[in-house]
Amino acid sequence: MIGQIIHSTNLGLIYGLIALSVYLTFRILKFADLTLDGSFVLGGALCCLLIKAGMHPALAFSLPFFGGAIAGLCTALLHIQWKINEMLASILVMTMLYSVNLRIMGTPNISIFEAPNVYCANPIFINFAIVGAILLGLLVLFKSYLGLTIRAVGLNQKAAASYSILPAKYILFTVALSNGIAALAGSLLSQYQGFTDISMGFGTVITGLACLMMGEAFICRYTISKALTFCVLGSIIYRMLIQSALNLDGLGLQASDLKFITALFVIAAIVLPKMRRKK
């Protein structure tokens, strides 16, 4: 039981990075970005490749950030430069990333069980340290002028442009940052579980949304600091709920039902607040 709680907490922390990525694009920027599915796998693929090449695990974990950022830039450029709908642009880049990831990995899955990783101590402390550092960095960012400008662009691009702000520049930065964080999540997960699979990114955005909405359900007074923090806390709670549901023998649920349960959580997180407001 304790082992399952620790495992759920570790996964919750790792997927908390995905929840932060989703928050940056969907909530702050109002940019429907599905590239995260591909960037997540790209991070894991690059991490495994670098570790197999003999690179230090810490560097192998951090360098995939730039791969994810480039993927995000491609999506944002398609939207800004060639006026392709943001969702369509992200689907196109995500589709291309599937082939790119396969080319990087060489096979549908790649293992690093025998290789060294960043978990030199208890994994839960390492995950708390890494996720905490990224969360702190985002909190500092959104308290700065740059962060306030990004939030202004997300609220109203036309109004921001009237104050001599170039929305395109901030959209490029935020989408790149979001996908870079998603790549870090994939890189961290690959070292935690010891392998990367080409299909592990399917439904990543949905999972991130579920974690995000789970966290937002506990926010009474909305602030950017609370929202970012509860993204991670919501991810941990979400993972524990998933684990509890799978362990209930009476429900007869299996690991293959994970995506179905995830979708149900998202539906519940959307519908229940609306029902509460109506009452």
List keywords for this structure.
12 helices; globular; mainly alpha; 2 strands; 279 residues
Molecular structure report:
The model has no long low-confidence stretch (mean pLDDT 91). The protein is 75% helix and 2% strand. The protein has 279 residues and is mainly alpha-helical.
Radius of gyration: 19 Å
Range of strand content: under 5%
Q: What general outline do the C-alpha atoms trace?
A: globular
Q: What proportion of the residues is helical, as a percent range?
A: over 70%
Sheet having the most strands? 2 strands, antiparallel
Order of helices and strands: HHHHHEHHHHEHHH
Q: In angstroms, what separates the terminal alpha carbons?
A: 38 Å
Strand order of the largest sheet: 1-2
Number of helices: 12
Q: In total, how many domains does the architecture comprise?
A: 1
- Poorly predicted residue ranges: none
**Which structural category do the helix and sheet elements fall into?**
mainly alpha
**How many β-strand stretches?**
2
Mean pLDDT: 91
